[in-house]
Structure prediction request, 275 residues.
Amino acid sequence: MDALPYIQNYNNKVIVVKYGGNAMTNDELKQAVMSDIVLLSLVGIKVVLVHGGGPEISDMLKRLGIESHFVNGLRYTDKDTIDIVKMVLAGKVNKELVALLAEHKGNAVGLCGIDGRMLIAEKAEGENGEDLGFVGNIKRVNTKPITDALNNGCIPVIATVACGLDGQTYNVNADTAASRIAAELGAENLILMTDIAGLLRDKNNPDTLIPFVNVSEVPFMKRQGIISGGMIPKIDCCVEAVRRGVKKTSIIDGRVPHSILIEILSSEGIGTQFK
Prediction:
């Protein structure tokens, strides 16, 4: 009964979940996430699941004897690597998630950014102009394949590889892709699953969680050092989504079982909300 007002509020609205981190590699957490998504779908909430698969890509490259190379934390993606990225993300990981949702009686369909030219990208560069290979920045989103799936009662599961303006396939950061997809769909909420509790005032103290942040506060928090390191790109995605029209975005701890339900169906939520 406590959840009823939130179910009514989200009924027939879109939420986008970026799935990653420990929740994607721990079998027990994975099962909890899948059951959460199916439950939300069954009560009339339109869920779009966007995923990466960095560990799986690294594992496959290692098995094939291809060395992983990173430039300022971003995977350098050469011709051999982009073929592996397509195979692992759009094939292995994507279809495993669709199968898991089916095990929980969910009606899911696997998609990637190439399907229906859903994600159009251009070649990206590093912060200082470094060559990243076939890594892309999203230029356009064609939402029709996603909305068609939603209107047919399906849960779209999206792997983040994209079509290039030059005909090349590009690897796209899953947080960035989820942010743009949420904005283009006019989503009610974008949820980024991570391996931390949310934004912490003191990154070494989980009790300093900041539950609510106005996007106008973000530049000041960066100057103070509250937002730093790997949180910067994630929070930038949240800010960008809000500025493009998403009602709110949330960074939540995917290590907590059923964290999606706690975030969506309660007043206090579980992580940090950005509005």
Summary: The mean pLDDT is 89.
